[in-house]
Design a protein that fits this description.
- The protein is of the alpha/beta class.
- Helices cover 49% and strands 11% of the residues.
- The strands form four sheets. A seven-stranded parallel beta sheet has the order 3-2-1-4-5-7-11, sandwiched between helices.
Amino acid sequence: MELGSIIKFLENKTILVTGATGFIAKIFVEKILRVQPNVKRLYLLLRAEDAKSASQRFHNEVIAKDLFRVLKEKLGENLKPFISEKVTLVPGDITFENLGVNDPKLVEEMWKEVDIAVNLAATTNFDERYDVALHLNTFGAMNVINFAKKCANIQLLLHVSTAYVSGEKAGLILENPYRMGETLNGGGGLDIDAEKKVVEERLSELHTKEATDAEITMDMKDFGIQRARKHGWPNAYVFTKAMGEMLLGHLKGNLPLVIIRPTIVTSTFKEPFPGWVEGIRTIDSLGVGYAKGKLKCFLGDPESIIDVIPADMVVNAMMVAMAANANQPCYPDDDQIAIYQVGSSVSNPIRFTCIQDYGLRYFTSNPWIGKDGKPIKVGKVTVLSSMDSFHRYMAIHYLLPLKGLEIINIAFCQYFGGVYRDLHRKINFVMRLIELYQPYLFFKGIYDDINTEKLRMAAKDSGVEVDVFNFDPKTVNWEDYFMNTHIPGIVKYVFK
């Protein structure tokens, strides 16, 4: 594998980006505009009804973000004309044919101009409605590749998936593709078209029963978990992402296809500046709860490896993978797909106990200020290392008091009904979260990144701008990163 300059590769390229308001997409777009101002054009697909609403979303949810401050400082008054010249906003929706683009002239223009398609549109909600996740993550991916194949000059489709399509596998998890109909439990019988049909039948039944919107939403969430577990996946999110990969591999024909599978994506390491983050994800929600004094216990193995990777490293890996795979020979009967797992669990692993320690030290030195204006003191949390210990903890601290409150409420003629219902709702919410996240709390998998490592070595050997496109987790000092970059970034985001 030989690579030239990535910056040179991006010059004069026309790139279609779906899901353009997403976290990784914004970093991807900002990076291209900052390092290669001679990119020909970026077509940014946003879910919007028309050009006006697309423009509003783009400026409010993308350009207005602090992420673009370096580019703004660099260009000054020239930013607006530069964006107008380089960016074309495309109102659409990947759940529809031709990406839901209603302007036939714009569709024809993209089919003529697009060199590279990058699919970042997805729902990443673990507790998503099955119908929503299926349409976005599975059939949305199908619509993107069908659109890309109509582009006359297409060189590559890059699809961002997730490493957790592996489900609950333990041990070393390889960068292997999923074949059509493949299941994780060996049960067979997975038919993607049949999944779509059972969803439609289920929704029809619910409408016939005149179910409320809330009832339909909850049913679709539970149905997603049920269908995922039937075939060996823990939730609808990773199940639908895996099926999306299957469809891409099945439909790619002679189109070069790259699948990027990041692990847990965290704040930026270096670019455009350290610590930029948007949204509170997985381990960050635990950190915020801990800082606020609300997290009294932790369920999971503190010695387990937590695979995290900074967002800018994911974007850098995407760009190097694009350059390495664009226009590579590919044949319809060739089932080889370029898959890159972008994570740290092999090359620079970090254990959850270390992250706990960083949180304790940071919030001891920089305590969260409560609503009363006083600093919140933090300490070590109770670690529950098994589901049995969790159920015992919940029974003693919450379920028994809830039962007592129920009896008191009856005795006092429902006087404490509101308090009882509120506590009952919160307990049910916690139990549902535990059900959803249990597979990851005791996760024993390690994500092999041999393809990604080969990409890194090829970039290094070819003299690629390694400092500009660094995606080597070995260069991250996790203690310094969490203490001085990531946690401060999360705190800044919460208080912005």
